[in-house]
Amino acid sequence: MADDRPGAGPGASPGPAGRWAVPGLLLAMACFGLARFSFGFFVPAVRTSLDLDVSRVGAIGSLSFLGYLAAILASWALTERFGARWVAIGAGGTAATGFALVAALPGLPGLSIGLLIAGMSAALLLPPMVATATRWSHGPRHDALAVTVGAATALGVALTGPIALVGAGRWRPGFAALAAVTIGVTAWFARRFPGEAALRSRRLPDDVTTFVDKPPRAMRLMIAASALGVASSAVWVFGRDTAERHIGLSPTASGTLWVLIGAAGGFVIVTNALTRRCGRPGAWSLLMGVLALSTALLGTASHRGSLAFMAAPAFGASYLILTVLLLHWGASLSPDEPVVGLRFALLILVLAHTAGALLVGEFLEVSEPDTVFMTMAAVAAAGAAIRPDGQPGVEA
């Protein structure tokens, strides 16, 4: 069957999708990677500068995820009204604005407001990603979306450290550097992305009403996503700070751990191969086990960091592949509208991250990091038993 999409066919030029693929991925990196997870990299410097206790750090760490929740409902209506291009550009501008506010405004209010605003960018970018995947994806659109979210997150985490080096380890100049990079990426995307009015998201069914006819399967996904989000929050928010204050690593060594976590996320490209090899249930259980073990090692002082450099890439690879598996799982719950299921899965994961950051912060106030990280590892291990169906991915 001939492919009538733009740029398809032998000898064809790259077409619109080829022109904006790289800037589009980098924009997703800024919104899904930098905006949601960069705070964890700066926690040691922020705690020292603002004299924050761990419970307050947990509350601040939840704000970028809370920003996602605050913007998700409006984002679909905005894309339906104004089209994918302008909302995607607005998402990049929102992330850059949040970073700039963190860098420019004094004290805790500026940090909090900036992270909240930056966190909105991922929610704003998701509907344009759906619209463009529907228009140009050469495979199931939910598959392209899931892999893009995973790869962009990995890239953002891996590049946070090198970008922050511009600030010489100081968090305000570091966030200023993130703002500058995001502005540059957004400008490049704006130049390359076509201004086609047809690229608008259509109104999707409400998530809750879509899943009322399949409560057992949806509930299983909600429990599994909650386990993934809550358990991983210990590392995403407190991992680097714990590596320095509790395990005794240097700032350089702890920064290297962070880069390794992101770089290992590149293994999202093997998700389909792993699923074919182990099946979706087997892959989920295996990777949740890896996440549990790596979480325990990243928060335990007994090895004095000797195992942390193996645990960090294991955590990054397992978390990001699990994220892709979770999004596929969500899509399979709504075969007529896979994107609705994907959106539902991502929403539950973000809710779990929000609660997890708060919970871990409060837990660290009253317990040693060893105990907290081992508890979060147990949560991940329990999540290994809540497995998806063994069905193949749905087509969209």
Give the topology.
Blueprint: H1 15-50, H2 54-61, H3 63-82, H4 84-104, H5 107-136, H6 141-164, H7 171-192, H8 207-211, H9 215-247, H10 251-264, H11 271-298, H12 308-332, H13 338-366, H14 369-383
Helix pairs in contact: 1-4, 1-5, 1-6, 1-7, 1-9, 2-13, 3-4, 3-5, 3-13, 4-5, 4-7, 5-6, 6-10, 6-12, 9-10, 9-11, 9-12, 9-13, 9-14, 10-12, 11-12, 11-14, 12-13
Protein traits:
disordered C terminus; 396 residues; Growth Hormone, Chain: A; globular; 14 helices; 2 domains
If you had to describe this structure to a student in words, what would you say it looks like?
- By secondary structure, the protein is an all-alpha fold.
- 78% of the residues lie in helices and 0% in strands.
- The protein folds into two domains: 20-194, MFS general substrate transporter like domains (Growth Hormone, Chain: A); 207-396, Growth Hormone, Chain: A, CATH 1.20.1250.20.
- It is built from 14 helices and no strands.
- The chain starts with 14 loop residues before the first helix and ends in a 13-residue tail after the last helix.
- 58% of the residues are buried.
- Mean pLDDT is 86; it is low at 1-14 and 392-396.
